[in-house]
Every structure is written in C-alpha cells, then in structure tokens.
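Weekly puzzle thread! Below is a chain. First person to post its structure in token form gets bragging rights.
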Amino acid sequence: MSKNKKMSLSGGDTTEKFIYKPKDLIWAKMKGFTPWPGMIVEPPLDLLTQQRRANTKCVFFFGSRNFAWIEENNIKPFEGPWKEELAKVSKPAAFRHAMADIDKYIDDPAEVDDQINESCGVPNHATEADFDKIRDAVDSDENAVDADADANNGVVVHVVGSPDVSEAVEGENNADSSASPTVTAATPATAKSPAKRTPKAKPVSAVSATKAAKASTTKSAQKRRISAHQTPTGANTSGLPNAKRGKRVVSGGATPGNFDGASSSSPTARRRVEVDDLLASLAAKRAPNAIALLDRPVVTRPETQAIDMNSRSNTLADRDIVPSELTFGFLGLGMMGSTIVKDLIYTGHKVVVWNRTIDKCQPFVEAGAEVKDTPMDVVEAADIIFCCVSDPKGAKDLVFGNCGVLQLKDLRNKAYVEMSTVDPDTSLDIGEGIKQCNGRYLEAQIHGSRQEAADGMLIILAGGDRTVFEECHSCFKTIAKNTFFLGTDVGNACKVNLILQTIQAVSLVGLAEALALADRFSISLNDIIDIFDLTSMKSPLLLAKGKEMAKGDFNPQQPLSHMQRDLRLVLNMAENLDQSMPVTSITNEVFKHTKRLGYSEHDSSAVFVRSRF
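Winning reply:
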C-alpha cells in the first residue's frame, strides 16, 4: 500500500492518500453498516458483470465472506490510528466474528486465499490460447449432441430447475415439485407410467413428422434447453438430500427396475436411462467450457509513453533546416502533437503551447517552449497557430468554443493551420470562421504513425491559403519527408487523407484475418510474414503490423480508435454521395467490435485479436 496524491480517503487526515492493491487488509464502509474488516481482491466473475461507479475496489468481507464494490473514499487501511476506535468489542456478534476471522487470516491465510481464488477463478484464468481449445471443444460437443440425439430416435430432452434453485426452495418441494431438477422425455402415446406424477406423453401428432424433421427439431431444442450448470438427475446426486430432489427426481441409488414405477423392460425406462447418461456426459464436458468463456482475459490499457525530450532522430539530424523567425503556436499535445512540437523545438523554432492537461506541457517548458492558459492566449502570442487534436468535435470546440481561437475577434496577420484528421465539412466550417475574422486558413493533414512522426517521415497533405503553406515550409521540412499542396480549395486535403486511411484500414483487416486463419492451421505466423516479405505484395506497413500481430504487441503507434474514427468519416462522406462502400462498412464493423473488446487505445493491429475469435 503506497501513498499517492491522486487517491484520497474520507475522514481522518485528508492529507494522507493511498493506493490499494490486492491482498491489502482494509476497513470498508457500506451504506447502512458499520466499518467492516475486509481485504482488497480481484473481482469474482459475477461482480465483473455488475455496473459500478468509478474509483471503486472489490472488497472481500471477513466474517460474512462475500464480495462487493466499495468506493475508495469509503476505505481505510486496516492498520492505523483509527483501528482501536473501529475495532471496539461493543459491536454486534457478527462484527466480533469478522474480527476473529481476520485475526485467523493473519495467522494462517491459506483457507481464505483458497476460497477467494476459487470464487475469482484465479487458477483457471483463460488466455487467448485457451479460447481456441474452448471453441473447438464446444463445436465437438455440439456434434456429439447431434449424434446422440439421432441414436435416441429424436428424443427431446427438457431440463427444468437447477441444484441452486432446488436448495433455495427446499422447504417448498412438497407444495411445488417443479422447483427441483426434473427430467422429462417425449414418449410414444402408447407408453404411460402408473406413477401419479409421471409427465404426460406428447401427442402423436407431435412426433409423427418425418425422420429428417425430427432430427432437426431435436438439434435446435437441445441447444436451447441444455444448460451446462444444471445437474441431470441421472448424474451422481447422492450428495444432495432426498428432500431437495422432489418426488419426480430419480434417486442416485435407484435401479432401472424402480425407475419412476416403470419396469426394467419398459421402453420408456430404458430411454430415460439413456437420456440420463447423455445429460451426465454433457454436464461433465460443457460446464468447464462455459465457465472458462466467462473468464475472459483482462485487457490492460497500454501504458502512456512519456515524451523523451533528449532523444533525437538521425534522419532529422541530417537535414539542413533553417528555422523560421515567426512564432508558432500549437494546440494539443497528444500522441502526434507532442512528437511534432519536440522536433520543432529541437530545430530551433519558437513555440507557444497549450493542452487541456496542463501537466503535459511541463517537459516542453523545460525544453524552451512557452505555455499559455487558453487557446485564445496562444493566438495572441503566435503568428501561425497549429491545431492537432483527436476528432472533429474537439477541433471545432477549440475554434468556436469558450476561450477559443475566435474569441479574439481580429485575426489580422494571423494564420491557422488545422492538422487534426477531420472531414471536409468540418474543415470548411473552421476555415470560414477564421476568414470572417480576417485570418488566413490552411488545412495540413498528416499521414503516418507516431514512429514516423518521431523520425520526421510523415506525409503532409495541404490545401487552402498558399502563403501560409510557404510560411510553414521550415516546419513541414522538419516533420515530413514529402509535402503536397493540393490547391486552394479547402476540403481536398481531408478527402485525400481519408481515402488513404480507408486503403490502410481495409488492408489491415485482410492481413489480420489471413494470419488468424494461419494460426488456426497451426502454421507459424513468423513463417507467413517471412514469405510475404519475398512477394510483390509486401509493404513496410503490412510487414510491421504483421510482426506486431505475431508477437501480440499492440503498443499504440496509430490508435485503433483513431482508425475507426477515420472509417466513420469516410462512410459519412460516401453516404452524402450515395456511394456504395460495402467492404469499408464491414471493415468499420470489425474495428467497432474490437473497440468493444477493450482495445480502443491499443494499436490498430489489435484487430487481429477480434479476427481470432
């Protein structure tokens, strides 16, 4: 447990702040309860599906030995000056039992740790490799169900209730026997059991269809109704009291001759025994798979890489760059913006910066940049202002929002350069707003990854005011290997950039699906990539992304969420033109699904994860 300024505790000394990690002993306060001894743990499977507030921890409570999400401001370390007050023995017996339980844990943690591990599924944590085995096992189980159903002449199995339900209604079995595990089977109309509670046979019309129709019905019904978590009555249920089984449940020790009143030679009895065996085998096979599928691998967010102000690109060092005498403002110090600003400072440009998170500005201040409090302040201090943010909405907010660029009503002798990836309509709106305030506007779309920005190997696609383009020449030479001016019409550069992004995204999804297929064949992905490198199809981008997929290294060079944003903008443009783009639409859905799996902030090559499943 370490002290940190970002997490606070309620009550007591508000200057003390803590970070909690698993196995930390704590006091936790739930609404309506006194502070209770507990421990920080990894959440069990059932808690993972529950909605919870931000800044909460999963707490295991001693005594009751259950779990709950608790906000961090309702948690205190177990050891501290408050312990004596919180541990007073005048509290209820349940609290004293909890105190004895935590003391027992401190002396011997093995029992509690085993219970927590069993609840949280720690020993059986699924990896991505396990998913392939699980998927194959489920497919083979379904094939086995189909084969066994055909062997049983199309008998449809119904499993009603579960062991948990049976225990919950133990005292009500005499009133309603349907709450206990029950097995019924569709039987011919001529086979009837003398037992009072034997299920009624289905009508002859329900089973008089053709053989093919019966097999089809059996398959679909079995897949819907058989649950991996229900205990069939033919399985070993000797550990359950007879009162929990109900009158219609076959006892674990019952013989076929005493099966629900039917004789051993009865076709109904023999069929039910076969059904019991089938259900027992299914429960044994599929229960672990169902549990493992719930235990999805935890997707950790990629670590934010701090900007290294001391590193220098060899490519950039070899360039002969004469810095402009103008002052350049820069709005946005994200993944691309921070790298660009670092290179501008390194080549001797005078830079004024602003960022929503002021902490990100500190390394640039130390390197010689000037920081301002608002975008409007940057506009006042600079001659040319660059903007590089994550989406069109953010770009428009910086221009039209409170304390934005246009709060300075006269932009005479000022120029605004939009480097954010935006759609043509957004670029036109921003350009129109700048021009109405007597400013000049240039859209300069950047095409490339974070590493290409660090190496000064981006591609600049510009359009708009030609004089601004020429005044930014030294900046563009610093960060790009090639620069294109696509005319004075605003919007052309945005269109070209989004078209290039479409080609890249579709290619990535094709590469991911091809490597996923190779992985299913157990073919080495590295071998595939080496062979691909020798073909005419090779490209530096696909080779680099293929190697990342093979290693499972999705450190963001171009975040997946940014790529999906570009696809959305492309599809919106196509919709306005009634242009059909079915492949791009499917590619967009693949990226959206990968985002939902938790890979939004990873590299775009993480689409490989989705393709594998």
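Puzzle host: Confirmed. Bonus trivia for everyone else. Residues 314-490 form a domain with the Rossmann fold fold (CATH 3.40.50.720).
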